[in-house]
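Lecture 7, part B: from sequences to assemblies.

Below are the input chains for today's worked example.
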Amino acid sequence: MLIATSQSLHFEAPLPLQSGASIRAYDLAFETYGTLNADQSNAVLICHALNASHHVAGVYTGQAKSEGWWDSMIGPGKPVDTNRFFVIGVNNLGSCFGSTGPMHINPDSADGQVYGADFPVVTVEDWVDAQARLLDRLGIGTLAAVMGGSLGGMQALAWTLRYPQRVRRAVAVASAPNLTAENIAFNEVARRAITTDPDFHGGHFYRHGVVPKRGLRIARMIGHITYLSDDVMNAKFGRQLRHAVQDAAAHSDYRYSTQEVEFQIESYLRYQGDKFADYFDANTYLLITRALDYFDPARKFDGSLTKALAAARSKFLLISFVTDWRFAPSRSREIVKALLDNQRDVSYAEIDAPHGHDAFLLDDVRYHGVVRSYFDSLGTEVGV
Amino acid sequence: MLIATSQSLHFEAPLPLQSGASIRAYDLAFETYGTLNADQSNAVLICHALNASHHVAGVYTGQAKSEGWWDSMIGPGKPVDTNRFFVIGVNNLGSCFGSTGPMHINPDSADGQVYGADFPVVTVEDWVDAQARLLDRLGIGTLAAVMGGSLGGMQALAWTLRYPQRVRRAVAVASAPNLTAENIAFNEVARRAITTDPDFHGGHFYRHGVVPKRGLRIARMIGHITYLSDDVMNAKFGRQLRHAVQDAAAHSDYRYSTQEVEFQIESYLRYQGDKFADYFDANTYLLITRALDYFDPARKFDGSLTKALAAARSKFLLISFVTDWRFAPSRSREIVKALLDNQRDVSYAEIDAPHGHDAFLLDDVRYHGVVRSYFDSLGTEVGV
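Predicted structure of the full complex, as structure tokens:
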């Protein structure tokens, strides 16, 4: 079993941000798995999505249930094989899992207050810049691969554009070249649920000793609906009721209540919402969904993704899932087309998995087979 | 121009409900358009969906902008032609537009309080029973047609099962034989936004002089996303920004804010949410979404829709829209198949309109053509 150890590095130099602001100084939490080879050619950077961290693979000592979020994909003998590759997981700025974020002390605050709503807006490009500095400190010039799913795939794509010479291959799973209006709409409803929660206090809830849990619960429930396919929801929950009615004389098996749980799907969503609200930071939720909204490499090229991706030099693997209605296969195909327009080396797999967007975290055999084969050939290429 | 007049009738006899409870006495608000013919053969009942009322067609005197919610469909010379048919719009029990609902005095309350959360849970079948009593009072035995879209289509279907001898034709547009887990999930998130709003007070907010507007806004925003197609959202809003940046030296056209409106779609949703929260009743929202959740005629037949629909005697017209992902065409086809299994007379049209679920309220020429032709032949059949 792979044992993970959380590490952290402090960065003194301010990080200039896309917004024009900057972060004065910051810490990045990260983990590494496997061994960096002598010529530093086997490094793989894993980028995370909304609700994840630098804890990508393995477990912490003495915590058997603490598997990293992509443990099915990454580890000894797994598709991304840590016996061959040196894998790095990093927690992004603004997150709530170890790197500097809204719940940390704002160095610009005269009386030592935490950032809260004053944490600067960070973008996918800002995260990539911060990750590049981490690689500098780790002595890694070129990545064998950068890889991520969903928002993590956007970071992989951004890497190939901001640091084209530092990426050999990029793997983007269940990703998109930008958000659609509907994607933004779901993000916005979730954000409004948080910001209109009376416990939000304009983002400075920490100093009031409260947490906008109502809003976080709603945000998570909305998120969960968009992560799953209609089919998998019907298969898992369908119209099943939460409580079997014991009274044989009952008029019906319904309880007839507007406020109590009636269906299993309601119970599931409430549970997910409660769990999330207990650990996730509300300002982080706003920051990360905004980073999603803002990502749009084609924007500076009059909407031409082909022109935007002309800067990329790496090889690419794109993977999508047919039941993913959040980042549908058509969105991955837009990236594939733009790369082919630029004569880039692209592999693309569209996997007929039933799980919707969440499929990127699961271990479909075809999906993992594609990734394994891609990293096998990459290992040969870099001599590991 | 058709002039509409809102009417109301009081019903003294208690109405037994599916839940086993009953409503002691109640009023139903309704409107009629056109003239009932001598043999009462030309009556058409229109059933409404979540956010609509008995004001189906025409305008109120002196209020030019007060068109009924299906005015494009119903009126003199329109697909449902009020020169030939006597059309009835009725507001359902539990609604907030005139019929008895949660904001009315509870006759069981010792101190004259309004129902609030004590309003009994009502189902599609209960509404149909109440509508049947209204027809009794209007002297109408058999309906030439019962018609509705979305939840209104469910009522049309329920009519053919509860009162098979009283319906000549049923028209269900953008409807479904029950809700999927995903449909219920969206309803539940909206309800949780309302019930966890501190101003909800367990549904008795009236006596606190407040309204759970935060929750109503979120509920409406979620609803709006599910009423529109991804395509129409992209066409109408795409990634357009709300404010053009005036500063030519600006780093970007983004404003970089997590809480302010950045995209047009956000502005649209906030506006829709604000408007809705100003007039819609929170308890009504819970009641109507629960009626949607509970509707499931196949439930008492071990899930067999074919067995459930064996009771129906009317002719049917089903219409769906290919971009409707809330009540997708596949759901209408389930109904069509179950009716055909029972050798019923069914017409079905699947319209390639871009607007998603909302298409049922719009005036696509093919959609209206199908309805017009169906009511033309019905008019001939009943001699008008």
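Note for the exam: The longest strand of chain A covers residues 26-33. Keep this in mind when comparing with the next example.
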